[in-house]
Amino acid sequence: MNDLVQELIDRIDLAQEIETYQSIIKDGIIKLNNHGYSDIAAQISQLSQFQTNRFSETETKENFNNNKVKVKEYLQLSVMDNQYCKISEGEAVIIVESILKNFKQSLDKMFHKNIHGKCNDTLKNHLPNIGIQNEYDVQHLMYPFLLSVFEDCRMEKCQDTGHHTVREDIVIDSYKIIIELKCTRRSMTERDLSEEVAADILHYKERHLFFYIYDKEKIIANNRCFINTYEGMRVEGKDIHVIIAN
Q1: Which of 187, 204, 214, 215 is nearest to 239 (CA)?
Q2: What is the pLDDT of residue 82?
Q3: How do beta strands 208-214 and 234-235 pair?
Q4: Which of 86, 87, 198, 240 would give a disulfide with 91, using CB separation of 3.0 to 4.6 Å?
Q5: What is the DSSP code (8-state) at residue 90?
Q6: CA-CA distance, 23 to 33, in Å (whole number)?
Q7: pLDDT of amino acid 81
Q8: Confidence (pLDDT) at 84
């Protein structure tokens, strides 16, 4: 991130002509988007606009130079912002996906496998009895895993969709990520689950939407087919990811 932004700042410094400056900005926006820094790219696109005066070359030049300073100041601040210094948006998506894919295996290791004999009796007696019964259990256990990496991770954020309010299970605001949790139950069919997922895709506004489905009752006939129905879809610019555990 730092190298990418510093390169853009250096190129802006060297730009003496408006056409050159606009070309550098355009190229920088493309690179920022490609590396997952779409928020910074969007801000640069907006900040780099300035007024030209066809009757006054002096005023146009002054506006141009002031704009360069403003854009460079924003870029320098973005480097200092911890939100972007650590990992990019694309990297955050990969990390979340990895945590979700390994979540059930991690729980098995924590609660049921090879509990050390020197652990205290409370742990040894109670850990093997812990199990997932509903999606609230999934949420409560998954949240600390995500919080250990993403400090602004939040549970149960409410969002107004314009039609009604929906409750988002886990949200990582800095990276536009939402994790929607499902735990199948005896009264649920695969069709019911599909309808819930389809409705959530339309309602939620975040760019990256993860569905973690704990198929406790094993109602999904074919995991791969279910995942393929939704994964990779682009609905209003949203990235859809589906992880099924059973």
Answers
A1: 204
A2: 45
A3: unpaired
A4: 87
A5: H
A6: 16
A7: 59
A8: 44
pLDDT tens string 142-198: 999 999 998 888 887 655 545 555 678 899 988 889 999 999 999 999 999 999 999
Contact 244, 226 (CB under 8 A): yes
At 209, list the tokens: 């939407």
Angle value at C-alpha 80, between 12 and 69, nearest 5 degrees:
30
Backbone φ and ψ for 208, nearest 5 degrees, come out as -115, 115
- Reported as a single tens digit per residue, the pLDDT across 61-86 is 999 999 999 999 888 877 765 444 46
Alpha-carbon distances of 96 from 133, 146, 230, rounded to whole Å: 23, 7, 18
What does the mean pLDDT of the chain come to? 86
pTM value is 0.63
From edge to edge, which strands make up the β-sheet containing 234-235?
Answer: 153-160, 165-172, 177-183, 208-214, 238-245, 234-235
Tell me if 147 sits within 8 A of 153, measured CB to CB: yes
Longest dimension (CA), the chain: 84
Q: What are phi and psi of 55, to 5 degrees?
A: -95, -10
Nearest to 214 by CA among 132, 107, 130, 97: 132
3 state SS of 195: helix
Rg (CA), the chain: 24
How many whole angstroms separate alpha carbon 211 and alpha carbon 219?
16
Closest CA to 51 of 41, 36, 66, 73: 66
| Strand duo 153-160 + 208-214: pairing | unpaired
Gap between the terminal Cα atoms of the chain: 38
Nearest residue to 178 via CA among 214, 154, 147, 148: 154
* Helix intervals (H) in 15-56: 18-34, 38-47
